[in-house]
Specification:
This protein folds into two domains: 87 residues, Orthogonal Bundle (Multidrug-efflux Transporter Regulator, Chain: A, Domain 2); 59 residues. 60% of the residues lie in helices and 3% in strands. The protein is built from seven helices and two strands, in the order αααββαααα.
Length: 146
Protein backbone atom coordinates (compact mmCIF):
# COMPACT_ATOMS: atom_id res chain seq x y z
CA UNK A 1 0.00 0.00 0.00
CA UNK A 2 1.47 3.35 -0.96
CA UNK A 3 1.43 6.51 1.12
CA UNK A 4 -1.35 8.11 -0.98
CA UNK A 5 -3.70 5.31 0.05
CA UNK A 6 -3.28 6.03 3.77
CA UNK A 7 -3.64 9.83 3.60
CA UNK A 8 -6.94 11.50 4.51
CA UNK A 9 -9.45 11.60 1.68
CA UNK A 10 -10.95 14.88 0.49
CA UNK A 11 -14.37 13.45 1.32
CA UNK A 12 -13.32 12.42 4.85
CA UNK A 13 -15.67 13.63 7.51
CA UNK A 14 -14.63 15.94 10.32
CA UNK A 15 -15.84 15.96 13.90
CA UNK A 16 -16.83 19.19 15.62
CA UNK A 17 -13.41 19.35 17.26
CA UNK A 18 -11.54 18.67 14.00
CA UNK A 19 -13.54 21.30 12.11
CA UNK A 20 -12.95 23.81 14.91
CA UNK A 21 -9.22 23.19 14.80
CA UNK A 22 -9.04 23.28 11.00
CA UNK A 23 -10.98 26.55 10.77
CA UNK A 24 -9.53 28.33 13.80
CA UNK A 25 -12.66 28.68 15.92
CA UNK A 26 -13.92 26.99 19.08
CA UNK A 27 -15.98 23.81 19.13
CA UNK A 28 -18.77 25.84 20.74
CA UNK A 29 -18.73 28.15 17.72
CA UNK A 30 -19.12 25.16 15.38
CA UNK A 31 -22.04 23.88 17.46
CA UNK A 32 -23.65 27.33 17.42
CA UNK A 33 -23.22 27.69 13.66
CA UNK A 34 -24.89 24.28 13.25
CA UNK A 35 -27.73 25.29 15.53
CA UNK A 36 -28.49 28.50 13.61
CA UNK A 37 -28.23 26.84 10.20
CA UNK A 38 -24.88 28.10 8.92
CA UNK A 39 -23.56 24.54 8.87
CA UNK A 40 -25.48 21.39 8.02
CA UNK A 41 -23.65 18.41 9.49
CA UNK A 42 -24.57 14.81 8.91
CA UNK A 43 -25.46 12.82 12.02
CA UNK A 44 -24.15 9.37 12.76
CA UNK A 45 -27.28 7.38 13.66
CA UNK A 46 -25.23 5.09 15.88
CA UNK A 47 -23.72 7.67 18.19
CA UNK A 48 -25.40 10.98 17.26
CA UNK A 49 -22.07 12.66 16.45
CA UNK A 50 -22.10 15.47 13.95
CA UNK A 51 -19.82 15.08 10.97
CA UNK A 52 -18.73 17.84 8.64
CA UNK A 53 -17.07 17.92 5.25
CA UNK A 54 -14.01 19.81 4.10
CA UNK A 55 -16.42 22.25 2.48
CA UNK A 56 -17.53 23.33 5.96
CA UNK A 57 -13.99 24.57 6.65
CA UNK A 58 -14.43 27.02 3.78
CA UNK A 59 -17.81 28.11 5.13
CA UNK A 60 -16.47 28.74 8.64
CA UNK A 61 -13.51 30.69 7.26
CA UNK A 62 -15.91 32.75 5.14
CA UNK A 63 -18.00 33.49 8.23
CA UNK A 64 -14.88 34.60 10.12
CA UNK A 65 -13.88 36.95 7.30
CA UNK A 66 -17.38 38.39 7.00
CA UNK A 67 -17.59 38.95 10.76
CA UNK A 68 -14.25 40.78 10.66
CA UNK A 69 -15.84 43.12 8.10
CA UNK A 70 -18.75 43.79 10.46
CA UNK A 71 -21.43 41.52 9.03
CA UNK A 72 -23.83 39.95 11.52
CA UNK A 73 -24.54 36.23 11.53
CA UNK A 74 -28.06 36.82 10.19
CA UNK A 75 -26.62 38.88 7.32
CA UNK A 76 -24.03 36.17 6.64
CA UNK A 77 -26.78 33.55 6.51
CA UNK A 78 -28.62 35.63 3.87
CA UNK A 79 -25.41 36.02 1.85
CA UNK A 80 -24.74 32.28 1.95
CA UNK A 81 -28.37 31.48 1.07
CA UNK A 82 -28.27 33.76 -1.98
CA UNK A 83 -25.03 32.18 -3.13
CA UNK A 84 -26.37 28.65 -2.59
CA UNK A 85 -29.44 29.55 -4.66
CA UNK A 86 -27.19 30.61 -7.53
CA UNK A 87 -27.79 34.34 -7.10
CA UNK A 88 -24.99 36.80 -6.64
CA UNK A 89 -24.90 38.16 -3.10
CA UNK A 90 -22.57 41.01 -4.11
CA UNK A 91 -25.23 43.78 -4.31
CA UNK A 92 -26.46 42.84 -0.82
CA UNK A 93 -22.87 42.68 0.47
CA UNK A 94 -22.19 46.19 -0.86
CA UNK A 95 -25.46 47.62 0.48
CA UNK A 96 -24.85 46.25 3.96
CA UNK A 97 -21.29 47.49 4.19
CA UNK A 98 -22.20 50.95 2.84
CA UNK A 99 -24.92 51.22 5.50
CA UNK A 100 -22.54 49.97 8.19
CA UNK A 101 -19.89 52.54 7.18
CA UNK A 102 -22.46 55.33 7.53
CA UNK A 103 -23.57 54.00 10.92
CA UNK A 104 -19.97 53.74 12.11
CA UNK A 105 -19.24 57.31 11.03
CA UNK A 106 -22.26 58.50 13.00
CA UNK A 107 -21.11 56.54 16.06
CA UNK A 108 -17.58 57.90 15.73
CA UNK A 109 -19.00 61.44 15.51
CA UNK A 110 -21.20 60.85 18.55
CA UNK A 111 -18.28 59.40 20.52
CA UNK A 112 -15.98 62.28 19.50
CA UNK A 113 -18.58 64.79 20.69
CA UNK A 114 -19.07 62.91 23.96
CA UNK A 115 -15.31 62.77 24.51
CA UNK A 116 -15.08 66.53 23.98
CA UNK A 117 -17.94 67.17 26.47
CA UNK A 118 -16.32 64.85 29.02
CA UNK A 119 -12.94 66.58 28.73
CA UNK A 120 -14.56 70.02 29.04
CA UNK A 121 -16.53 68.91 32.10
CA UNK A 122 -13.46 67.45 33.78
CA UNK A 123 -11.49 70.61 33.09
CA UNK A 124 -14.29 72.72 34.61
CA UNK A 125 -14.71 70.36 37.57
CA UNK A 126 -11.01 70.41 38.45
CA UNK A 127 -11.47 74.00 39.68
CA UNK A 128 -14.58 73.27 41.78
CA UNK A 129 -14.77 71.92 45.32
CA UNK A 130 -16.53 68.70 46.21
CA UNK A 131 -20.10 69.36 47.29
CA UNK A 132 -21.93 68.02 50.30
CA UNK A 133 -25.40 66.59 49.63
CA UNK A 134 -27.98 69.03 50.96
CA UNK A 135 -31.19 67.32 49.93
CA UNK A 136 -31.56 69.54 46.86
CA UNK A 137 -28.71 68.24 44.72
CA UNK A 138 -27.36 64.81 44.01
CA UNK A 139 -23.98 65.84 42.57
CA UNK A 140 -23.46 69.49 41.75
CA UNK A 141 -20.69 68.67 39.26
CA UNK A 142 -23.10 66.89 36.93
CA UNK A 143 -25.98 69.25 37.64
CA UNK A 144 -24.00 72.34 36.62
CA UNK A 145 -22.78 70.74 33.37
CA UNK A 146 -24.33 71.96 30.17
Amino acid sequence: MNKADTSPKKTETLTVKALAKASGVSADTIRHYSQIGLLHPNRDPGNGYRYFSGRDIRTVRFVKQAKMLGYTLSEIIKIIELSAAGSTPCPLVRDIIQRRIRENRERINDMTNMQRRMEQALSKWSQLPDGTPDGHQICHLIEISD
